Amino acid sequence: MAVSRADNSTLGRWWWSVDRATLIAVGVLMLFGYILMQAASPAVAQRLHQAREMLLFKQVLFLVVAGVVMIAVSLLSPRQVRRAALIGCAIALLLTALTLVMGTSIKGGRRWLALPGLSLQPSEFLKPFFAVATAWLLARARREPGFPGTLLAGGIWLVIAVLLPQQPDIGMFAVITAVFAIQLYLSGVPVALMGALAAGGVGLAGAAFMLLPHVHSRVERFIHPDSAHGVGDNFQVKTAMQAFGNGGLLGRGPGEGHIKDILPDAHADFIFAVAGEEFGLLVCLLIVAVFVFIVLRGFQRAYDDPDQFCALAAAGLVASFGLQAFINMASTLHLIPTKGMTLPFISYGGSSAIAVALGMGMLLALTRRRFHGDET
Fold it and tell me: How far, in Å, CA of 19 to CA of 305, rounded?
């Protein structure tokens, strides 16, 4: 599609102002998601007693919807993004609280609300909305010294700190906390206070290890992997490591992997292992490089933005995106304790794909080049 620079329509102005490099990189991740689901879905569908093509069809549908959502959101102005995030954060908090009352329990966690045809995980949507909402509060607090933006942002974080551990979802809580800490630092919070908050974070991690059985169990299995046994222990991680060993440098070839036949979450949390076995180390490094590019590009665009709200929001969104990718790949490679977190745009899942697309759409909207007269 050729769009003239003289085109002053909404689409024309969007095309010449949006970060097309990031847009292309996201498209590459979606392509990897489609290819890897083609590899993993037949064996998973057979284990779940579903039609062979059903998982692939649903994932393609999720990716199409995610792409439409991302582009639609990227058309918004910063003011519209801010308003949508404030409303969305309130709704996501309410729905997250609702999971504790009427949520669906899957693998020991009550994180989902059952909807016709799919399960919705509200905390996935809480991540991008929280990043933008807190960015606005912190930026306004800097602009208007009498406005209690930092306290209000901390209050939202405290509500999340109450809700997520009860699901339990410590990994999601850790990502949101890390994003909030990054935004606090970038907003100019004194270093001494940041040190005190970091010490408090270490204390919270220690308390979680001591008081939450599932956290204690995962950390112990990570430290002492040889003492674990069975599917409920380190089976998936050990199997994933075997997949990387089988794949070597160039992989066994598309469709030639065997680990996916016995890996329960080959289509979801451990899809990176499928990439390692069938396509090898070089393709895995390419996937990592695409994620690194998006993160570094996002931070660069945030750094160059003179509007503090846009800069803080973009930094929070790209930090959330990067941390989610890191946690998934690092846990698959047994670099950190396992955490059920999807690989953005690659793992199977509707809530994850659409929520990440929402966050990337807001990132693209906030980092668009703004011309004189544009709404901010």
Answer: 13
- Cβ-based neighbour number of residue 77 at 10 Å: 15
Question: Domain range for residue 234?
Answer: 20-366
49 assigned to some structural domain:
yes
Structure tokens at 120: 């919705």
- Name the burial class of residue 306, with classes exposed (0-12), middle (13-18) and buried (19+) by CB atoms within 10 angstroms of its CB: exposed
Within the chain, what is the greatest distance between any pair of CA atoms? 66
pLDDT in tens, 36-69: 988 888 877 777 777 767 888 888 999 999 999 9
- Can you tell me the distance from the alpha carbon of 34 to that of 102, in angstroms, rounded to the nearest whole number? 33
Rounded distance between C-alpha atoms, residue 338 and residue 330, angstroms: 8
Q: Give the sign of the dihedral formed by CA 168, CA 174, CA 179, CA 184.
A: positive
Average pLDDT, the chain: 86
Q: Which residue has the higher pLDDT, 244 or 42?
A: 244
Q: List the Cα angle 309/313/314 in 5-degree steps.
A: 115
Q: Give the integer Cα–Cα distance in Å for 373 and 376.
A: 9
Identify whether 268 is part of a domain: yes
The answer as to whether 266 is a domain residue is yes
Residues 326, 95: contact at Cβ < 8 Å?
Answer: no
Q: Where are the beta strands (DSSP E) in the chain?
A: 104-106, 109-115, 118-120
Percent of the chain that is helix, strand, coil (3-state, to 5) = 70, 5, 25
Number of domains in the chain: 1
Asked, for residue 180, whether it belongs to a domain, the answer is yes
DSSP for 105-161? EETTEEEEEEETTEEE-HHHHHHHHHHHHHHHHHHHHHHSTTS-HHHHHHHHHHHHH
